[in-house]
Amino acid sequence: MTVAVRVIPCLDVDAGRVVKGVNFENLRDAGDPVELAAAYDAAGADELTFLDVTASSDDRGTMMDVVARTAEQVFIPLTVGGGVRTPDDVDRLLRAGADKVGVNTAAIARPEVIAEIADRFGNQVLVLSADVASGAETDSGWEVTTHGGRRRTGIDAVEWCARAAGLGAGEILLNSIDADGTKAGFDLPLIAAVRAAVDVPLIASGGAGAAAHFPPAVAAGADAVLAASIFHFGDVAIGEVKQELKAAGHPVR
Amino acid sequence: MTKPKVVLFDYGSGNLRSAFRALERAGGDVQLTSDLDAARRADGLVVPGVGAYAACMEGVLKSGVDAVIRERVAADAPVLGICVGEQVLFAEGIEHGVETAGVGVLEGRVELLDAPRIPHMGWNTVRADAGMRLFAGIGPEERFYFVHSYAAKAKPAGSLVAVCEHGEPFIAAVERGALAATQFHPEKSGDAGYALLTNWIRGLS
Lengths: 253, 205
Description:
The complex is a heterodimer. By secondary structure, chain A is an alpha/beta fold. Chain A has 10 helices and 11 strands. Chain A has an 8-stranded parallel β-barrel, surrounded by 7 helices. Chain B is of the alpha/beta class. Chain B has an 8-stranded mixed beta sheet, sandwiched between helices. The longest helix of chain B is centred in the C-terminal third of the chain and has 13 residues, at 190-202. Chains A and B meet through helix 2 and helix 3 of A and helix 1, strand 8, strand 10, strand 12 and helix 6 of B. Chain A: It holds the Pfam family His_biosynth.
């Protein structure tokens, strides 16, 4: 009776369409987030994450519709991140049908927003998303970045995660900018460093290139693992990741 | 065969879209409403809830559904509590040292889980007492989706329970007569949750 390691595919959604391409068989419309969400559910995903990469406010309305249609058809938890700045943004997403909301840049600009969201909706809805890079002149050597790693903040990443958890973040989505896109495996020292600093669940992201990359991330302290392109392009199936995790002695659904 | 009428009670708590659709999919004729008469008359009443215990109880009291829950339980009419909607059925909840009285149709208190990782978030198995109608046909290997930091830990008198463990054992589901409740989210628990909700809806007619 141990909680299972969650395997979470992440979809980038722009103006109601999935971007970065998805190569799945038997889909009518590979660009439709709702259809993809259903396909991942059928493939055994434990949770889904939509990252709203939309720039315009009109398209945010489209995103609400996508969230609503997904929540009506897919019966596993849904996290939505991207452009969330205020408790009212969270309210709109939860009403549309999201179960959890990812907050990133807004929390760096104004950390109190974490407490404001947690106080109003409970800490279980709030996923603090941190894009982390190494080579920093911080105590830990890791730094929080924004704009996909292009802008450094000078904030110590490990301290930031601990502070966010203290303020009320119910979960940390830890994305390694160094590992992201390399397909060389997760950033294990980073996972271990953040794990040692926080008690809330930790989702590891960035660097997965093969099913064998997942068990070490869990051994380093991740409670959940997230990936995008390797799932979308069919390089690795959700089921294969679960088999690897299970073979390594980690509980899976 | 007419579908049983299910009221999903809306007292301002969180995301109800999934719960609504999941109950429909399980065979219910579902109405999302804060109308107390509808809640009284329904074949089954669902009490949802997410977030803080005190905030949920405030919504429950403001809506007046607490009285309807008590009436229904006294008359052995079906009620299903989900997540914090399960927790508020107990006598009291303690969060951040603050004690809040619950609806009180189940004895016992809801307290912080003593576990290394809080919240308890994700898919876990449960051990259900024999004869629980909610779990009919659902094997012990099935997992349900939990997301919570607090839980009831003692079995209410005269009830059947399903127990889960996260740091320590706690009540994952409870059944006493027509009163049923789950700490996990069946509406977010994929096929296992669908099977459980179908069991509940079937029991309404």
